[in-house]
């Protein structure tokens, strides 16, 4: 912990001050998605709870994270319980539920510790398996109370990269791979499974370096996680990444790069998927070519089945453009890159 650079942390904090928070107290949204989990394709329901937001926002926050837009600083225990009750009335049953909170489910400031375990108990009366997200620092205290959910609970942690320089100078994560490892071991000791999120292409990192870092991080994190989810960066409002994007100094990763990462990890004995937010859009992973839809569908289909044919089958003439981009990126501003390559 305390692995931050004060200049980057300060800039992120000052950008955040210009953004609005929500006044609403209902849950943010719910939707379904499909993913290959625990041996087969599963239909998963996602619930995004509205909370007061990640405690790390209140200090600084991660350079790419704009989740605080959906949060309301006045939300407490009562409002969270009301959201769960409302949700369970509408969607009482299912196979898998993912709860996202724009922060950490086990952060006692965000979700009162008195209601964390009762919420899990209630959800597991109607759902077979639950996935919640947390920063590693909250795991140690809650772990003994999770033993009774062995085999039915997964905790997802945003490791992003195992490279401590990247965590400090690019992401501003304020924890290290060692913190993740410790939390993962604690959870495994209680038979709770662990998911690692990895971030593809954080700010200040070039496309080629990003691919190499994500592949290396996945290989390292696989020794401590049961499941890996690759998140290609999408540009969110009010973030340091958005500032760089608007200045022409950041381009989200190519879908070619996502494909490259996933294929490079074919031999890994841990499932690796990528459910991409904003796939094919300018602010999300995109090739900027007519193949965007085909690539988005191929990567989604792969993530639902782990069938590598869906990735191998992806081809397009823009591969050459991707490879040229990786050579010149950083040498000319990104906006100019887009202009240069739009003629390709
Ligand atoms: S990415 Fe996660 S840990 Fe970082 S600021 Fe956002 S919610 Fe908090």
Q: What are its keywords?
A:
TIM Barrel; alpha/beta; binds iron/sulfur cluster; 14 helices; eight-stranded mixed β-sheet
How would you sum up this structure, described in words?
This protein is an alpha/beta fold and 344 residues long. Helix content is 41%, strand content 16%. The chain has helices spanning 6-16, 55-59, 77-90, 113-126, 139-146, 164-171, 177-189, 207-221, 240-246, 255-264, 292-305, 309-312, 319-328, 334-342; strands spanning 29-37, 40-48, 94-100, 127-133, 153-160, 193-200, 227-232, 272-273. The structure holds iron/sulfur cluster.
Q: Looking across the biggest beta sheet, what order are the strands in?
A: 1-2-3-4-5-6-7-8
Alpha-carbon Rg, integer:
20 Å
**Succession of helices and strands:** HEEHHEHEHEHHEHEHHEHHHH
State the end-to-end CA separation.
46 Å
The chain-level mean pLDDT equals 94
- What is the CATH class name? Alpha Beta
Q: What gross morphology would you assign?
A: globular
| Assigned CATH superfamily | Aldolase class I
Structural class: alpha/beta
Largest sheet: 8 strands, mixed
Bound molecules: iron/sulfur cluster
Count of structural domains:
1
């Amino acid at each position: 912990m305390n692995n931050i650079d004060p200049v980057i942390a300060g800039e992120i904090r000052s950008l955040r001050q210009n953004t609005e928070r929500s006044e609403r107290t209902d849950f943010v949204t719910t939707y379904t998605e499909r993913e290959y989990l625990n041996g087969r394709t599963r239909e998963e329901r996602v619930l995004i709870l509205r909370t007061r937001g990640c405690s790390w926002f209140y200090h600084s926050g991660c350079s790419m994270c704009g989740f605080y837009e959906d949060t309301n600083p006045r939300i407490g225990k009562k409002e969270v319980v009301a959201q769960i009750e409302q949700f369970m009335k509408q969607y009482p049953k299912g196979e898998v539920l993912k709860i996202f909170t724009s922060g950490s489910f086990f952060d006692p400031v965000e979700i009162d510790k008195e209601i964390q375990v009762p919420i899990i108990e209630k959800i597991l009366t109607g759902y077979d398996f639950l996935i919640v997200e947390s920063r590693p620092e909250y795991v140690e205290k809650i772990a003994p109370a999770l033993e009774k959910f062995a085999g039915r609970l997964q905790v997802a942690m945003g490791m992003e990269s195992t490279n401590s320089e990247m965590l400090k100078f690019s992401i501003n994560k304020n924890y290290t791979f060692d913190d993740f490892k410790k939390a993962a071991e604690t959870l495994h000791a209680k038979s709770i499974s662990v998911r690692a999120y990895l971030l593809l292409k954080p700010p200040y990192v070039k496309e080629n370096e990003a691919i190499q870092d994500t592949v290396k991080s996945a290989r390292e994190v696989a020794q401590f996680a049961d499941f890996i989810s690759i998140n290609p960066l999408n540009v969110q409002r009010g973030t340091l990444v958005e500032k760089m994007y608007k200045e022409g100094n950041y381009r989200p990763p190519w879908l070619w790069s996502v494909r490259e990462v996933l294929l490079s990890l074919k031999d890994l004995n841990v499932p690796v998927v990528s459910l991409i937010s904003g796939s094919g859009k300018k602010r999300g992973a995109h090739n900027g070519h007519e193949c965007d839809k085909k690539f988005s569908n191929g990567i989604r289909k792969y993530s639902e089945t782990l069938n590598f044919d869906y990735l191998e089958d992806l081809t397009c003439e823009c591969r050459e453009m991707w490879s040229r981009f990786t050579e010149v990126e950083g040498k000319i501003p990104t906006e100019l890159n887009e202009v240069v390559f739009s003629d390709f």
